[in-house]
């Protein structure tokens, strides 16, 4: 344990030395082995997986806090609408982590990537500000989203308040990208825990803060949570790596020792060609849910189909959500310019199989035993009919972990190669398949129409995966001059 009174006297250098000698320091320490061990892969990935769970829980806590304020129904509705519009506008910023991790592979790239991402953030803030602080926001909420009365007024005010969210989110993700780069991912978990602790503290004190207008108190809770995360990431990077440039110098020394050449300087075109396909991918991804809901709304029993699918998919997504971060594993542990890359691939693939089997096992336990019914019926509070029909959707979802983690594995390698154009093309095939299959299933009309959405999601994941697999085989055949065996993918 750290001696009492030591922190304020020891400074960053002393605190860093204490962390290096502690258990956390041993977890954060970068491995010098030529091949990543399963323990190292777990120490890298588990914090990212835990963070996904924390984020899901935090969103529920936001609504719990708003429910304790005056006129909660209006406030919750207005916040949901304002937040959804803000997230659509700021969606490109969700790719900051991947851009930092993939593109900053040398100290000489730090400045160009920082300027580019700063420009993207400024553009998003400008667009969001123009919408939030003009009558355009009122027009969107009233004419497109159908709000009126007090809900409309609160939504306009909330959008103006939370328009600062992208500033703190971009700072958080910028430093989180370097935390992933330096393989100090436990820092991200620490930041997420600090975030949820802050929200819980606000919920406990929220009745005593009732003198603050509800909209501003909502902004304090929402923006403060991401600001806490950003602060933890900044301080954590300073403690564990002295600075970003110091951490990059260490990586440069490792690359020099390994005999890797100094990469060429990045241009704005290089960054744009990497970043834009990911942005398009994120935009397509946000459309998948509405497409499924549109199809279910045209089924024989739309209300029941929508309710069952929403409940089942929501529960299953809690288990599946950590898989969406697995691309960071293949992105960080498989270097295309390393002579040992085939050995790295074998180790990462083995780890991917373990994760997929674990997540599939959890889904099987939920779907094929009474556990799923108990969660839905008694914890979530759905009706007996919805709970029973949700089991059909959950059973189909059991195959998704294997598809998703394989897709994420390919995504990480494509990001490492800076060939993100294949990612958005795969996602385009994904959405076309989803529209086609959901339309077909609506015509077929199964007894439980909620499975239309699950079948559509499985089909679109499979089509995207087959496209990525075809792309990799074609790429390897072209580079080797002959067909490469599958186990080298």
Low-confidence stretches: 22-34, 482-489
* Secondary structure tally: strands: 0
Structural class: mainly alpha
What is the terminal-to-terminal distance? 46 Å
What composes the largest sheet? none
Order of helices and strands: HHHHHHHHHHHHHHHHHHHHH
**Which band does the percent of strand residues land in?**
under 5%
Estimated radius of gyration: 24 Å
Approximate helicity band: over 70%
Taken from the alpha-carbon principal axes, the silhouette is globular
User: Helical region count?
Assistant: 21
Round the mean pLDDT to the nearest integer and report it: 83
Question: What does this entry look like structurally?
Answer:
The protein is built from 21 helices and no strands. Residues 22-34 and 482-489 have low confidence and may be disordered. The chain has helices at residues 7-21, 23-28, 38-66, 72-89, 96-103, 110-132, 135-144, 149-161, 165-181, 186-205, 214-241, 244-257, 268-296, 302-320, 327-333, 341-368, 370-380, 384-397, 400-417, 421-444, 451-480. With 489 residues, it is an all-alpha fold. 78% of the residues lie in helices and 0% in strands.
């Amino acid at each position: 344990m750290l001696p009492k009174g030591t922190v304020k006297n020891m400074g960053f250098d002393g605190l860093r030395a204490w962390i290096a000698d502690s258990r956390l320091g041993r977890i954060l320490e970068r491995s010098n082995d030529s091949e990543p061990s399963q323990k190292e892969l777990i120490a890298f990935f588990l914090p990212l997986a835990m963070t996904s769970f924390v984020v899901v829980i935090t969103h529920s806590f936001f609504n719990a806090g708003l429910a304790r304020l005056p006129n909660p129904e209006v406030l919750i509705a207005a916040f949901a609408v304002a937040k959804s519009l803000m997230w659509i506008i700021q969606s490109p910023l969700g790719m900051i982590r991947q851009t930092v991790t993939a593109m900053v592979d040398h100290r000489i790239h730090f400045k160009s990537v920082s300027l580019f991402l700063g420009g993207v953030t400024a553009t998003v803030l400008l667009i969001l500000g123009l919408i939030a602080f003009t009558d355009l926001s009122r027009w969107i909420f009233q004419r497109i989203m159908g709000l009126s009365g007090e809900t409309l007024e609160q939504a306009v005010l909330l959008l103006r308040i939370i328009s600062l969210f992208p500033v703190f989110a971009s700072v958080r993700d910028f430093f989180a990208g370097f935390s992933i780069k330096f393989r100090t991912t436990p820092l991200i978990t620490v930041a997420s825990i600090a975030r949820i602790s802050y929200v819980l503290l606000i919920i406990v004190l929220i009745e005593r803060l009732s003198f603050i207008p509800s909209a501003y108190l909502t902004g304090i809770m929402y923006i403060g949570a991401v600001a806490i995360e950003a602060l933890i990431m900044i301080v954590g990077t300073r403690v564990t790596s002295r600075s970003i440039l110091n951490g990059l110098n260490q990586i440069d020394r490792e690359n020099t020792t390994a005999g890797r050449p100094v990469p060429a300087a990045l241009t704005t075109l290089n960054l744009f060609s990497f970043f834009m396909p990911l942005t398009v991918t994120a935009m397509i991804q946000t459309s998948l849910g509405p497409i499924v809901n549109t199809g279910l709304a045209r089924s024989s029993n739309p209300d029941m189909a929508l309710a069952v699918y929403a409940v089942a998919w929501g529960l299953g997504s809690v288990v599946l959500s950590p898989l969406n971060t697995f691309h960071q594993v293949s992105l960080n542990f498989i270097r295309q310019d390393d002579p040992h890359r085939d050995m790295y691939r074998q180790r990462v693939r083995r780890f991917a199989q373990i994760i997929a089997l674990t997540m599939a096992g959890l889904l099987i336990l939920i779907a094929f035993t009474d556990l799923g019914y108990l969660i839905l019926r008694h914890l979530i509070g759905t009706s007996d009919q919805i709970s029973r029909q949700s089991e059909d959707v959950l059973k189909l979802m059991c195959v998704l972990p294997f598809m998703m983690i394989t897709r994420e594995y390919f995504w990480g390698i494509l990001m490492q190669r800076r060939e993100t154009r294949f990612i958005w093309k795969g996602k385009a095939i994904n959405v076309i398949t989803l529209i086609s299959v959901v339309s077909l299933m609506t015509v077929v009309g199964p007894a439980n129409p909620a499975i239309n959405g699950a079948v559509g999601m499985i089909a679109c994941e499979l089509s995207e995966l087959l496209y990525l697999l075809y792309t990799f085989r074609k790429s390897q055949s072209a580079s080797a001059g002959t067909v490469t065996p599958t186990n080298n993918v």
